[in-house]
Design a protein that fits this description.
Oligomer: single chain
Mean pLDDT: 90
Structural class: alpha/beta
Number of strands: 8
Low-confidence stretches: 1-7, 243-250
Order of helices and strands: EHHHHEHEEEEHEEHH
Length: 250
């Protein structure tokens, strides 16, 4: 563990057992990716090296929310929903802004473990049967067709599934189908002209939430343990630590 001493540890209030700690959707995904990195982060307060924020993605996210909110207020479907023949409208709820807040989100106390599970959503739609569709916004810029086939996008699918599980625990009727609204930045324009244009696509994903609660129990077991878990398969961060340790010991 000496190699980790250079990393700044966060305030213990935000670690597991502290008053501010919650098991967020992103933490669940970190556990799936690498239990060791998850343990170091949440038990010891040692984060992975941070990445710079994707400010363009944040801007697209904010603008999409504003646009769908216009139709939410009108209780009408967005034209994109009509284009893809999705019979729904943006869902109105007094807690929507809290659900979208990264520091609040949709929350549920999982009594068997005593852990509060949380997740900040992008959007939620409702159909005529009263079922909710969980919706996530994504931004990219690529020439080929937008799909969910890439292996690294499995994390996106798990993201939708955690949100579906959370809404169900909070008493909502939720469809197995979730949607991704993809904004693809176009690169085939003749000039920039001080604007970036996007092509919007909707992709559907049929979620399976059966893995969520068993994973929560595994997380509880790991956090209550004193042993450092094995790293996730292919974790570049753990591989880097191992390499540096081997170099320093030569």
């Amino acid at each position: 563990m000496d190699i980790l001493s250079e990393y700044k540890r966060r305030n213990e209030k935000w670690n597991y057992g502290g008053p501010n700690w919650k098991l967020s959707r992103s933490k669940i995904d970190l556990f799936n990716e690498c239990p060791r990195c998850f343990y170091l982060d949440n038990k010891l307060g040692i984060r992975r090296p941070s990445m710079p924020p994707f400010n363009l993605n944040v801007a697209v996210d904010a603008l999409l929310k504003k646009e769908f909110d216009i139709y939410r207020a009108q209780k009408k479907p967005h034209p994109l929903m009509k284009k893809y023949k999705i019979e729904a409208i943006p869902f109105q709820h007094k807690e929507l802004e809290k659900w979208r807040d990264n520091f609040v989100g949709l929350q549920y106390l999982h009594e068997p473990t005593g852990m509060t599970i949380s997740g900040a959503i992008d959007d939620v739609w409702i159909n005529s049967r009263g079922e909710l569709y969980v919706v996530d916004y994504k931004a990219t810029s690529k020439d080929e067709e937008i799909t969910l086939d890439d292996k690294w996008k499995d994390g996106y699918k798990r993201q939708i599934e955690v949100y579906q599980w959370l809404f169900r625990q909070c008493g909502f009727e939720v469809s197995d189908t979730g949607y991704f609204v993809y904004a693809n930045g176009l690169k085939d324009k003749k000039s920039f002209d001080n604007k970036l244009e996007f092509d919007l696509t909707i992709l559907d994903h049929v979620g399976n939430t059966e893995w969520v609660e068993p994973t929560i129990f595994k997380i509880k077991e790991v956090l209550d343990g004193e042993e450092l878990p094995n790293p996730g398969k292919g974790c570049e961060h753990c591989a880097s630590h191992k390499f540096r340790s081997e170099v320093e010991n030569t």
